[in-house]
User: What shape does this take?
Amino acid sequence: MMESFQDHTRDFLKNVKRVVVKVGTAVVTRSDGRLALGRLGALLEQLKELNSQGFEIILVSSGAVGVGRQRLRYRKLVNSSLADLQKPQNELDGKACAAVGQSSLMALYDTLFSQLDVTSSQLLVTDSDFRDEDFRKQLYDTVQSLLDLRVIPIFNENDAVSTRKAPYEDSSGIFWDNDSLAGLLALELKADLLVLLSDVEGLYSGPPSEPNSKLIHTYIRAKHQAEITFGDKSRVGRGGMTAKVNAAYCAACAGIPVVITSGFAMDSIIKVLEGKRVGTLFHRDAHLWVKQVGAREMAVAARESSRRLQALQSQDRRKILLDVADALEANESLIKVENEADVAAAQEAGYAKSLVSRLALKPGKISSLAKSIRILADMEEPIGQILKRTELADGLILEKTSCPLGVLLIVFESRPDALVQIASLAIRSGNGLLLKGGKEAMRSNAILHKVITSAIPDTVGEKLIGLVTSREEIPDLLKLDDVIDLVIPRGSNKLVSQIKESTKIPVLGHADGICHVYVDKSANLDVAKNIVIDAKIDYPAACNAMETLLVHKDLACNGALNELVVELQHEGVGLFGGPRASKLLQIPETRLFHHEYNSMVCTVEIVDDVRAAIDHIHQHGSAHTDCIVAEDQKVAETFLCQVDSAAVFHNASTRFCDGARFGLGAEVGISTSRIHARGPVGVEGLLTTRWILRGNGHVVDGDQGVVYTHKNLALQS
Assistant: This one.
């Protein structure tokens, strides 16, 4: 399971009240040494917002030396003659810079906070102060009094009078820079959280400027200490990332969670407190959490497991599926409890009825899924099938064989039963699989994933099927076009469009399920009624449910249209009409024909003939599933041949467009793409081909002496 930042922060953030925020010189100042007023303003607005929400904010600020140096350089320039400027310039004394900069920096904080109606205070400390126990007690009492009054204390090391020889070089003592000071204060003042703001997003595996460097979301010392390559230290401060990591690790070991994140972002502190996956988290229990698995590692593990799966004998792969089916049935009561919890949470959250309907595992669903898996297990072995044999030359035989695609990433919403279907198809086709379900089905997906992977033998490995638990992981996964071979999104048009725009990986899927039923003038009315009612009400939330009813104009004149409408209304179906139908039937006019209701609602419109129906479908449909009800075979053939949809039916409900009903055993989804697989995608849609060439010492050698025969051979020799 992929580790989720939110999973571990959610618990301890519930009790966070006192927060120490450390802002470094690189955040406080610009690259030219001047104060970054816009950045500081945005930072203080965050602190003001948190202060008003009841958080106790303590600020540790660097930057005094940098501000003082900039001011003293200017003063020196103003007071220098041309001759003075031509002489070698000595470096300014760091302590003098600190003395000048401290007052300037504090004046700025006071001014900016005053504009936000917040009172701040300054506390300057030195290393030697903390050797005095009375000082430490008084410090705590003073800060407590300030916080009780909603005052924000601002700490800085008093470099002007510090006994440290050189503030940028001497790292002796109880603390040695403002990062370690922030960690010490977090401990002394009993903070609940420490946030270290940097000029980068967090801790990377290498210098952030290097393209192969990856952001580390949760720091685990045993894993990351030897892997990280630090870049240069801070361009202006004395610490840099090395100092931040040391301070963060020490504070975390003492029981104070720490997040290193960007001080350049407008709302980074607020996002941390909301549990968003930003920056790098340090926590003393991090090593006890589920082992962090990055997107690439997860995909690579799935590929390695899939290769072990392919190496098994056919009967062994079949047995895995049978074991999965048995495990589902054996754990049905546990699955039901988790699913009911998801449904209850969705209802309480006010989700649409159509989503709740898709979320629920109705009675008999687990048994039905287990039955489908057993049917899939008994199907012909799909891997390694010889599709074509050709003799290229005497003794040189070429075979085209079926093989898995590799690693699939399936992103789906709402329906937990989709996880079972997809996982079983992946096992049958020999593919590795990464699954990301909707958050509304989190409990259901987790238990189903656990049950299924527990049935996978160690010789293959449970990492064959990975469950992605955090939405924030998706962008990283979509970048892995060298590891993931196909993405199949199952969900809203918005979801599919976002994924297509965000990846170079081939995407297979459909955006909408706007299915039509056209009732021709030649239709048997009783047949039409049955098909229309079934297509709409059998499962209104399904992507293959009828959304638009098209009726030949003659049926509007002979009463047949009214009968169809009455049948729909009797079943509780709400109706909207196109321009012609709304006027005739006195029903509200639809604003948009291209609309997927996913509920007990549909659109009705009148068309002149079959060609008008075809044009309407091409203009407003989604190329999913469309049906004609007609007795005139010529009209029916025209519809079947000319409607450019993935599935086109004659005198049959659109609800038949389903992998199980097609005899595919299950489906990963219904594709409206025009390449690779189209319609319900079963095992065959998850396969590709490769070439096997068997020779006997054959060489090309410029084709000299090779007599090509290119003879087709029987598949079985």
Observations:
- The radius of gyration is 34 Å.
- The first helix runs from residue 5 to 13.
- Residues 1-6, 166-173, 232-239 have pLDDT under 50 and may be disordered.
- Residues 515-667 form a domain with the Aldehyde Dehydrogenase; Chain A, domain 2 fold (CATH 3.40.309.10).
